[in-house]
Amino acid sequence: MSTEIRRPETFFLEKFGLTEQTLERTLGAALGKRIDYADLYFEYRVNEEIGLEEGIVKKAARSISQGASVRATAEEKTGFAYSDEITVEDLQLAAQRARYIAAESGHTGAVAVRESRLAPRDLYPVKVPPTDVPIQRKIDLLQQIDRIARAHDPRISKVMASVASEHKVVLVATSEGWVVGDVRPLHRLQVTCIAEDTRVAGKRQMGTFGGGGRAEFAFFLDGERFAHFAREAARQAIVNLDADEAPAGTMDVVLGPGWPGILLHEAVGHGLEGDFNRKGTSAFTGRIGERVASPLCTVVDDGTMPGRRGSLNVDDEGTPTQRNVLIENGILKGYLQDRLNARLMGMAPTGNGRRESYAHHPMPRMTNTFMLSGATPPEEIIRSVTRGLYAVAFGGGQVDITSGKFVFSTSEAYLIEDGKIGRPVKGATLIGNGPDALTRVTMVGNDLMLDEGIGTCGKDGQSVPVGVGLPTILIKDLTVGGTRG
Known about the structure:
six-stranded mixed β-sheet, alpha+beta, globular, seven-stranded mixed β-sheet, PmbA/TldD fold, single chain, 2 domains
């Protein structure tokens, strides 16, 4: 890609010769008398990753992928086919296969796609594609991070840092007769530090921090954000090195602001996606209008936030993203929808149809999901807890969508004793049920923070970038798994 960012329609026309007539013929081949809807999705993507370890470049990779897919739906049945080559012949073949899979109909239809429009907004006005930033500039940044992290504490024995960049151009054409495209930049910087106590054989702990978004490379330089990432990764490693074993039992849990919103994303957000609710497999199925959380809880999914990792001008079906209030003052208001599930449920699409690539079909997915601020200062929340756990950051976790049960491991946590934050602890896990946990929220802080921009969500084998957020909240009587009683 050159540094000139062109409109998606112009880009695909010049590179692959995609004209209105090509789109019309392909959609026509996908349509049939039993087909409800058809669409085409085109993608051109450049990815680059530079990795530094022990001050040496250990990884330098760059890849280009391109392809197109055709989808045809007949009631609940979906026909989907894709091609790594973007040619008229391959598109025609993919369209025919998608039609046969969906409805086994030999009748072709016709569609006019003469109305072409740009994305309705520009949430990420990047002038230089992330993958066009000189590699040496990225290496210099990673080497600075290595020095800063090591300088934080002599016990930092190993530093690993990487910067991943993506520049993606997409174009969607639908059987409803319109075409929309998007140009999507993405950066992610990640730092991992290993701290070691040489006085005790094998005593090591890890800290990880990072961030990014749909922004210029200068995002990492603003206010020396990259230095903040390095110091936070090193600090977390040192905190965990000195941490005590976590206690086990039922106790009050305070979740810190920002990244702990990943628990909300996993334990609650997935259960609000349309496909799970249409199939009746979510703990939230059929509960719109009911109280599903504490009156203090308002949960939002917003794909319109400028520059955020989870934001999109339009989703991967060409629907503009929007701000969706999912739970308002504890009352369930709606679900996240793609086009297929919205149609089958008699609802409107919400701009949440997302896919990993042209080789994957779209499904309802989150964008930036968070809980709104309350009115309580966070220090007051801490003071209210006699004995509990303060969870600042999380590692991995597992969730059962049907039951809502979750298990999450903390990567940074502290004991709360007599209203004060005490010793750091390691090995703590939070065990509970997402919908039930929301009803146990008794205090919500006035300090909403979004994560730094490093989240990736997996579902049915597909991964997409997302954002999470949370103010400080207090959950009463949550089960904490630990390594001591």
